[in-house]
Amino acid sequence: ALYATNLLIEATEYAGEQFVIESITRKESEARMSREEIASQWNDVREIVEKWNDRVLDNSDSDGKVVMMAPPPRKAFIQVLYAWGDSKVRRKGVWANYILKNMASLANTNTSFDVIPDSKCFAIAAKCWSGSSHRQSFDHILELHSLHNYFANKRIDGIVADDPFFLMHSIKSAHNYRVLKQERAVSKWFNRLHRYVMDENIKVNPSEVIIDLTGTYSGIIRGYAKARLKASSKNAKIAIERMHEIHSSGSKLAKVEINQNAYDLLLSCLRDSKSR
Question: Which helix (H) or strand (E) element contains residue 270?
């Protein structure tokens, strides 16, 4: 992933632009940040978005800069994000954030770079944070949602407000439902995800991959079973019912396999609720 990132940085510089990477040292990248500091890291991106509405992307360099070679395409940036998402590096979420920031900045400063982040980019960034052991990973995902909602409200091309992959990876990032903000976020994301995949009015591109939500829905039941909340049995039952809804609906967006493990987890929730 680091090698791919270095190649992307080099290609960007050959195209006449700078790829800005701040410190990625463990001490600085894992220093505890306040909620305000996590949110403010995207202020410059929001300022950039305000300028996009007045610009039209084309293949020319309207700024008059000398372009030594064609800029790396959007696909290259996405592939580097995927490389970090599949890696085992502890700070891969930090790298994902830097790539998103540079995509936004490059799209603004040079119209040759057609790399405005779309929902797929946000989904991969969420996957990076979800698989990271960074102690503030969930807070960073919450802020990604805030930025994604901002993009959606600005009607940025490629942004789907309830993108199922973004919601799926976000749900998987919650590891402790006893933490109130995690349980509330999962509940909200779960409702949005299920509503989206069950919406028959959404146009489906035949080339799109059908999303497998088996692990996501089972993971929600497992999360409630581990948390042993008062509402665990109720919410686990809702998740099972929604699995059946998808399974019997013939959805063109999503699929699930209802396995024995899901029922075992539900029974565990029911036993715990009766023992109280």
Answer: helix 260-275
| Cα Rg of the chain, angstroms | 20
The stretches of 87-213 forming alpha helices (DSSP H) are 92-109, 119-130, 137-153, 164-172, 180-197
CA-closest candidate to residue 77, choices 17, 29, 37: 17
How far apart are the C-alpha atoms of 112 and 24, rounded to whole Å?
Answer: 28
If one compares 146 and 207, the residue with the highest pLDDT of the two is: 146
Residue 61 has pLDDT above 50, yes or no: no
Q: Which of 135, 134, 170, 129 is nearest to 149 (CA)?
A: 170
* pTM of the predicted structure, to 2 decimals: 0.84
Residue 173 CB-density burial (10 A; 0-12 exposed, 13-18 middle, 19+ buried): buried
| Long-range contacts of 81-86, Cβ-Cβ distance < 8 Å, separation of 24 or more | 81/121, 81/124, 81/125, 81/128, 82/124, 83/1, 83/4, 83/5, 84/1, 84/5, 84/124, 84/128, 85/124, 85/127, 85/128, 85/131, 86/1
Summarize pLDDT for 94-146 with one digit per residue, the tens: 999 999 999 988 888 887 888 999 999 999 999 999 887 777 889 999 999 99
Residue 235: count other Cβ atoms within 10 Å of its Cβ. Answer: 20
Residues 217-225, mean pLDDT to the nearest whole number: 95
**Selection from 110, 113, 118, 145 nearest residue 129 by Cα:** 145
User: Which of 99, 102, 89 lies closest to 137, judged by CA?
Assistant: 89
Backbone angles phi, psi at 243, to 5 degrees: -60, -45
The answer to whether the beta carbons of residues 14 and 69 sit under 8 Å apart is yes
Which of 25-34, 137-146, 185-194 is least confident? 25-34
Rounded Cα gap, residues 154 and 150, in angstroms: 6
- Mean pLDDT, the chain, whole residue set: 85
